[in-house]
């Protein structure tokens, strides 16, 4: 268990991993990821999970920022996309990225589990969908899809 600043054991931080994992081996170090989420705690969790797998990553706060990053010429192997965000939601951002020809694995990661919205999100062009909270095992499941495509 990790100790928080006040000396308390923090099971949550331990659950996202304290040390780099070797679950995917050296192949993971070549993977790049974009985290698209407006919630700073989710950004931290997703970033830590990716860091622990040795994956270089960048974080943006909404779908428009994800589009802008790609328009600036950056590309990623994996995009972790939240559904509910201000400015541009994950469904619209996923549609636009696919219309731009972006072939990255896009995994929807959302706390919203209503079937109709999940279906709309998948139809926008997702390769995978995981309910929050994202865990190491859920991330590894997504990363296996990245490795198959790469």
TrEMBL record:
What is the official name of this protein in its record?
Response regulatory domain-containing protein
Q: Quote the SMART domains the UniProt record gives.
A: REC
InterPro entries linked to this entry: CheY-like_superfamily, Sig_transdc_resp-reg_receiver, ST_Response_Regulator
Q: Which UniProt keywords apply?
A: Phosphoprotein
Query: What residues bear 4-aspartylphosphate in this entry?
Result: 82
Which GO terms fall under biological process for this protein? phosphorelay signal transduction system
What the entry lists under SUPFAM superfamilies is as follows:
CheY-like
Q: Using the record's annotation, list all stretches that form the Response regulatory domain.
A: 32-147
Task: Write down the superkingdom of origin.
Answer: Eukaryota
């Amino acid at each position: 268990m990790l100790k928080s600043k006040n000396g308390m054991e923090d099971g949550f931080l331990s659950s996202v991993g304290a040390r780099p994992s070797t679950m995917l081996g050296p192949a993971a170090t070549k993977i790049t990821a974009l985290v698209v989420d407006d919630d700073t705690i989710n950004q931290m969790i997703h970033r830590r999970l990716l860091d622990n797998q040795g994956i270089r990553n960048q974080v943006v706060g909404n779908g428009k920022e994800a589009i802008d990053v790609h328009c600036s010429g950056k590309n990623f192997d994996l995009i972790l996309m939240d559904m509910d965000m201000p400015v541009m939601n994950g469904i619209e951002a996923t549609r636009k990225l696919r219309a731009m020809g972006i072939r990255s694995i896009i995994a929807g990661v959302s706390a919203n589990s209503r079937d109709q919205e999940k279906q709309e999100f998948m139809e926008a062009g997702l390769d995978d969908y995981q309910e929050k909270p994202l865990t190491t095992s859920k991330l590894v499941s997504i990363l296996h899809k990245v490795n198959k495509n790469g």
